[in-house]
């Protein structure tokens, strides 16, 4: 006997499968890869910039430790090391004190600079002249940038 009731011949209605967030569409994968690449490039860029500025930051920190007039040679050495770091072949590094003083004065023309011959090589350095030299070095280190040091 055949089934004459049409309702019994129907199968249950199946609901469609829900779309979930996983796995994402290919466009989202591409966007994720692009963001990761951009973040890596940005990190690399800022890391190199940070590393290039490291000698300048260290020179500023070391300058805070130089306070006494008998440390004038250390102050001079600090400034020369900084120039050597960014411009290793600069002619002023092996030049006499007079040329070194002229070079420094060109960096900050408006700031007074004492006679370095006297400050560096006198047995009892004058505290006032050392203070002027230290202030000059401090202003120069805070004014100068890495790009300026590389162009010396």
Shape by Cα distribution: rod-shaped
How far apart, in Å, are the first and last alpha carbons? 105 Å
Number of helices, where a helix is a run of at least 4 consecutive DSSP H or I residues = 8
Radius of gyration: 35 Å
Description:
- It holds the Pfam family DUF4381.
- The chain crosses the membrane at residues 28-47.
- It comes from Rheinheimera soli.
- Keywords: Membrane, Transmembrane, Transmembrane helix.
- InterPro entries: DUF4381 (IPR025489).
- With 152 residues, the protein is mainly alpha-helical.
- It has a domain at 55-151.
- Helices cover 63% and strands 0% of the residues.
- It has eight helices and no strands.
- It has helices spanning 6-9, 26-52, 54-63, 72-86, 97-107, 116-121, 127-143, 146-151.
- Helix 3 (54-63) runs antiparallel to helix 4 (72-86) and helix 3 (54-63) packs antiparallel against helix 7.
- It is rod-shaped and about 125 Å long.
- The termini are far apart.
- The mean pLDDT is 90.
Comma- or semicolon-separated keywords:
single chain; 152 residues; rod-shaped
Write the layout of secondary structure elements.
Blueprint: H1 6-9, H2 26-52, H3 54-63, H4 72-86, H5 97-107, H6 116-121, H7 127-143, H8 146-151
Keywords: Membrane, Transmembrane, Transmembrane helix
Protein name: DUF4381 domain-containing protein
Organism: Rheinheimera soli
């Amino acid at each position: 006997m055949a089934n004459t009731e049409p309702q019994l011949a129907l199968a249950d209605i199946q609901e469609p499968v829900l779309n979930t967030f996983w796995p994402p569409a290919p466009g989202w994968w591409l966007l994720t890869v692009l963001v990761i690449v951009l973040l890596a490039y940005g990190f690399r860029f800022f890391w190199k910039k940070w590393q290039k500025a490291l000698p300048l930051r260290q020179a500023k920190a070391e300058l805070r430790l130089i306070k006494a007039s008998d440390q004038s040679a250390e102050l001079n050495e600090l400034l020369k090391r900084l120039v050597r770091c960014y411009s290793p072949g600069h002619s002023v590094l092996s030049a006499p004190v007079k040329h070194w003083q002229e070079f420094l004065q060109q960096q900050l023309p408006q700031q007074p600079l004492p006679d370095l011959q006297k400050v560096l090589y006198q047995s009892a350095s004058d505290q006032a002249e050392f203070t002027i030299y230290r202030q000059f070095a401090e202003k120069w280190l805070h004014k100068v940038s890495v790009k300026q040091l590389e162009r010396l």
